[in-house]
Amino acid sequence: MLNFLLSRLLTFIPTFIGVTLISFSFIRVLPGDPIIVMAGERGMSEERYAELRAQFGFDQPIFSQYWDYMTGVLQGDLGTSFVTKKPVFDEFFALFPATLELSLCAITLAILLGIPAGIIAAINRGKFFDRALMSSALVGYSMPIFWWALLMIIVFSGWLGWTPVSGRISLMFFFDDVTGFMLIDSLLSGQAGAFKSAASHLILPTIVLATIPLAVIARQTRSAMLEVLGEDYIRTARAKGLPPSRITYVHALRNALIPVITVIGLLVGTLLAGAILTETIFSWPGIGKWMVDSIYRRDYPVVQGGLMLIAVMVMVVNLTVDVLYGLINPKIRKS
Amino acid sequence: MVETTQSIERPGRLKEFWYYFRENRGAVIGLYVFLGVFFVAVFAPWLAPYDPTEQFREHFLQPPAWQEGGSWDFVLGTDALGRDLASRLIHGARFSFFVGVVVVVISTTGGISIGLLAGFAPKWLDTIIMRLMDVILAFPSLLLALVLVAVLGPSLMNAVIAIAIVLQPHYVRLTRAAVISERHKDYVTSAKVAGAGRFRMMFITVLPNCLAPIIVQAALSFSNAILDVAALGFLGMGAQPPTPEWGTMLAEAREFILRAWWVVTFPGLAILITVLAINLMGDGLRDALDPKLKRS
Asked: What interface predicted TM-score (ipTM) does this complex get?
């Protein structure tokens, strides 16, 4: 087990270096001078240009630039934003709870609906329920979620007037950040209606962000269930005369869930990509919107730092899933 | 005794494929829709009633024909600049097809070549290539494409390149895995003994036996490419207005969502139908090409 853990950790290091190299080189190696782009159409004097180049260290050789960048990264210093003048690291972690809250709600919804849907489809294989559920799952899987979000706004905010269009909570409420999770903070604040407002802001973004993971989980659960239900030990259980519900939920489901859990772990990247679109449409103040805004504003330190932090987060989650998978399944550990 | 040497011919590969593909009704429907969109894309200038950029100044945001205030001159209504929505959608099909085809061509050729190289290369080179692919896969694909386009400059072509780069590691992984499982089989050894050169081994002996999962992946990346380019267009980082690309059309329509439902609904519906058709086909391809996967 220790060997397995070590070998996984060892592959983490070169990947991490690669991630820092990519986010570092985007600005420096690809065509386009960030300082000229920053100046925009106004242009700038040559002295100012040289001054700015020196300020950002662009006049140094590329290796020493990377060295400076890496020493910064390892000390948690990712530079400061051009626009807000705040450290990128602090900004990221100030906005991260918003994205985490939204993503957790979305993945919870996807799991709560997706696994039962997959089980129902597998049990009713080839029948009406199976077809209906799997057709909907394929539609969900093919959904352009930015359009889906707009449709939801038209119907639920526009025509029905049930939900707000943007933000995390109504401007009427104001309270301190305790956990950074609006649902919890609004409860803690004890203000009447605050929780309801926070929840109503959360509904549409959650549904939109959950759509693709929900479809993926439902499809994966169905195929894993079908595979397990064909195994010999299930036939044995049937032959022993166990009730079908016990076979499905106790014997089959436990083994079918292993690949489903892996897929859920791998959905983190999908969630973050979805968060970029969802947060932009619903003006949700999280890291997805922050990245898009920074790209529009050409705020390069933020783009560079945010890109790296997000990639590292995806890597850490994937590593955790990998290790957990090894814990559950000794076959993986040995190979 | 009369000798009866009746040779039973193996059905042609295509015929066999079609036999399994046809079993999946959804896949056949998907194929027909896909061919329909392809037809529209090819003959767009003849099918579209108007030029996609022509503005009709008396008809801003006119609703579709069946709704009050609409007319059959503009079947699906007009957008905020008075352009015919139906014509723009028809021309938009061309961009989606272009995007899908180019992305699939670039990412498959790149991915297959690198994957073959990794599969046949010495261990150290294989490790370097695979770590590099891990690095690319660590970034959420849309985010990486977004940043790439931001640096290269927003345009449809740059969006296509960015997405091809982002999708390419999947092919590398698939090809490499297939090569490694094939490499030690007897037919490969015998080709080697017969004196096949390295390139012949890679592209003629081994590759054709690795193609099934790659073709399925190609269908998936075709639909992914259309979705991602539309998403980039929606964020203002893909095709630029007045290009009638579906995602870009949605971005332009965003401010009118509560006033004119049709400018938002139809472009998205076009994306959904196209992507859904391709994904249906992809499921059918998987069932028909990959006998290892259980048919369900």
From this structure: 0.86
